[in-house]
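Sorry to interrupt, but I need a hand with the structure work. I would like you to pick a protein and set down its sequence and fold. Please put the record directly below this note.
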Amino acid sequence: MTKIALSQRQAAQAALELPKALRLHIGLFGKRNAGKSSLINRLTGQNLSIVSDIPGTTTDPVEKACELHPVGPVVFIDTAGIDDTGELGALRVGRSLSVMQWVDLALVVIDAAAGISADDENLLASIRTRGIPAIAVLNKADRVSNEAASALARSPALADLSALPVSSLTGAGIEELRGQIARTVSETWQPDRPLTEGLVPRGGLAVLVTPIDFGAPKGRLIQPQTQTIRELIDQGSRCIVVREDQVAGTLSELRRKPDAVITDSQAIKAVAEQVPEDIALTTFSILMARSKSDLTALARATPFLNALRPGERILISETCSHNPQGEDIGRVKIPNWIAQKQGGAMDVDIAVSKDFPSDLRPYKIVIQCGGCMVTRRHMLARLRECIAQGVPMTNYGLAISELQGVLDRTLSPFPEALAAYRSEREKLEQAGEL
């Protein structure tokens, strides 16, 4: 095997190992038997999805990570038909529409032989309302004439979209579709913001604090820590990784001040006591909030934690389905810290993985995890939903720093977010709610 072939193979393997949260997410939507699963298989050249002539073969959204030329690492999401029927069918349609909130690109698969139905038009309207980049895929074009396929692509219902006739059966139009996906992605995709952007310069130095406690995964670091280390290495910066009881000693041994100290949120109080005020200090979770979501909006909502009263209902939202530990940060530690500060326990609900309540109005606040397992669009969609329903939303890192009394310090590297936090806190104080 030549060196070139080996490097290509290594690159392909590295792409497949890329975490899903850092991949482009492409959702396929359409009626039952429009050929969504067949289209995924044809686009990827693999049998990733089960194909059947029986309508409704795909029941729940199914994620498939793969490499799509010329785009790169992607996650395809195969969804149930939007015309599914019955009580279970309605639930499946609801799940399909919920996926729409967080995909980076929607492929609207329409049966070219059947034409554009009312269900297709409703689907297109939902996509437009949500502002989701989309391509109309006129599948089964082999069953109609070229003239009929071209006329369908020019339909007023598709006037604002790229519409391409394709055939999952013969492969006709697939290369053109790949090219259109690449063009649309280059114009619309909003990848995660680099974690240390503006905090640690190229060639800089950071001290990373990673406690090894009961909740630490055995034999590895958690993804935000690993991602930060890799990012710093890629930009030619240096990092020193220490435990929370080694911070002061490490800083005293350095010849120069680090550009920043970044710590696991749970150790923030102990670390803050060891880091001089002239060194930037923040947490991995706050960096995730800036990378995945809108840090300023989340910071603005954080003072509402101090307006909580015992017995009020709050939502702890996690985007992964990890196995809860005895001292789980979301289920145990954060609720306990709130109870200690506010003088009594809250009524706590837990939302796990991609489940997120459609009605958020019963909650006084939503506390979202860092979101390391999902996309930026997914996190922003949740934030928009909270704002639309008038429910404040913060994240784990911001909440922990606030409950430990150090949020002014950990937000100081981000002046806009700090100003929003202080402004909202002042409003609540003036209103007598704090």
Q: What stands out?
A: Residues 202 and 234 are 9 Å apart (CA to CA).
